[in-house]
Amino acid sequence: MQDKDTILPIQLSFMLYPTVMATGFLVLPALGSLYAPYDFWMSSILTMIPGAITIVLATSLHARFPGLTIIESGQRIVGKVFGKLVGLLYFFYFLHFTGVISREYAEFVKSSFLFDTPMLFVSCSLLVLAACAVRGGVNVLSKSAVIFAILSSLPLLFLLLLIPDLNWTYMLPMLSQGVVPVLKAAAVPQGWVSELFLMTFFLPYVKDQKKAKQSSYAALGVIGISMMLINLVVLMLLGPDTSNKMYPVLVAFRYMSVGGFFENLEALLLAMWVLGNLVKQSVCLYATVITFSQCFGVSDFRSFAFPIAILAAVFGLWDLPNIAALHTLIQKVSVFETPLFTIVIPLLLLLIAWMTGRRGTNQGGVNG
Amino acid sequence: MVRRLIRASLLVPLIVMLTGCWDRNELNDLALVTALALDVGEDNQIDTTIQFLLPRSQSGVGGTGGGGGGSGTSRDTAVRHAQGSNIADALSKLQRRLPRKLFWGQCKIFIFGQGVAKKGVQESVDFLTRHPQPRERSYVFVSDGRAADTLELFPPLERSSAEVLRELSDMNIGFKLTLEQLSIKLISDSKAFAIPYIHILQKSKSAEPQQTIPYIYGTAIMKGDRMIGAMSEKVMRGMMWINNEVGEYTVSFGMKGSSDGLISLKPITAKIKLVPSISGDKWKMKVKAHVEGDMVQNETAYNPAQPTVLVEMDKAFEEAVRKRIELCLNQAQHQFNADIFDFAGVYHRKFPKLWEREKQNWDQRFPQVEVETEITAHIARSGLILAPGGMPKEEVME
Question: Has the ipTM of the complex gone over 0.90?
Fold first, then answer.
């Protein structure tokens, strides 16, 4: 952490938005529709709660240990050995996570656009870019995120072009099965929103911590609104057919037609998919690389960017034999896996630190 | 500096990738499919017929500007067909008979032959919605007779018969159904729906043998995923009233007491509300309609400028709308027992708990639903003249 780089709070929110939205938004309505076919749009509100919790956790950990990421502060809280073990867990989790998102990215591109291109080529070409961004450091990451996040989220507004085709009666009957299905529908997206915890790796670079907190909440708010917009438009367009679609948002973009000539907008979707995923993958790869270097006490993280990117590509291929396994992972496993690393472990660490009264900075003290 | 140049030159290979990697497609390697027709082939196989665009330079009329003679129809499309055990199989066989790669991005028309529609469309819909190329916004039709025949027409206007069907659908005169809507209707509560039904227009005397168009006439009535019958144009109008889909359409009706002529209204605007109610074992549905129209022709001797006369006309208008709606309801409930109005969905939304218990009985329930119509109809404007045009003053009835 010898960088003199700094991040503006606003840049933080531009990094966090694609980190949560970039891969998930494409399948979001289908996952909710499985459980609450008429009410899943309400789940977007519920998913904000775990998001807010992770922001609180990340910022209060950082307030106790200013200038330290969770990997470093973990070593201060539970001792060096256990701290490194926790760090190793995080490393494997982030590596696996980066692999999965690069697989998700490549899977969509291959199944809907580039049918004949080898999947490994698709996933690696973006990972190489992400690794370049990581080598560039926080400055490159944050500045590119601002441009790419804007470019990748604006096409969402095109969903409004579908208004003439929407049928609001698909929202009825409302809550006919009670609120339990809505809670179930919120299960998967809450995992995605809690990925906001990745901000722990960027908080040390933000000067004004209070503003950092505010801009994370702002990112969370925009994420909630975007999820609601996507859910509502897709629900009113596809109704009961939503749950059977692999990529409901792709269908929505293909369905757009304005005046009979403004059509085939899925190319736009692909463009935002690539840009959004670039930010997401570089943020995740950065987290993986930093975790690795802090865990093993290596001062220069840059040289690990490419090797770990290769590992991530391999993880993406080997973890998941087919699309059904990917679906099970998203629907059943990551629901618990993500909050374990983004809420449960940080909460435990924070509790231990609070009880033992440990605090610290990266100046002096134990050498991380 | 040199290092920089070397580094920058590393970017050059990237240009190679910008061409689309392994998926590069050249336009002159593609056959642009405009429509797909599905028929029953020999041995219960499926017979797929595609219509594809011929490049301008090959269609024969290319460079000759404007003038030209009436000798020989200009043909912008050609058809080809192949049989297989399912659509995917048949299309792969078809590809073997076509030197260019099938490209579905421009295909906006899917036509089920009557035979296929009667056997069930679900398997076909699976292919069309699963395959990543066919577009969800394409229109679907059922054809009277073989679907392939509608593709072998060369319309005098428009480039292809597929284009004719698309334009006709976009005009909002009849009703239209997209592939995605079909996919939704197949899993809807009512398990019944309608698909636009197309016929081949009889060619005019001077036209050449295949120089005519397919056009939409009435609907095919589907139950489950099978076609069980067809409704005529007139009856279909009643369905469009109830489903609130009245588009560009002229209503003509006679006046009570005067047998000599009709009043025609266009355009019509309608607001329809379906109000379901359940009392005991009686399921009722109230169709509330608020209709307005502008007069375009008045063959009667009545003067619509007179308030008292206009009230009478409104009543006749109301009666005309009611008759159309009831005619259609009667056929749907008693002849076909097919809930093409999605009353099932209306009950489901209003009584979700009860519906969960009763939904398996819907087939017996639907014919017994008591439908009540409550219609208010107004003639809003009478056009540019008041009393019947060209009629001497003393003959006009006030």
Answer: no
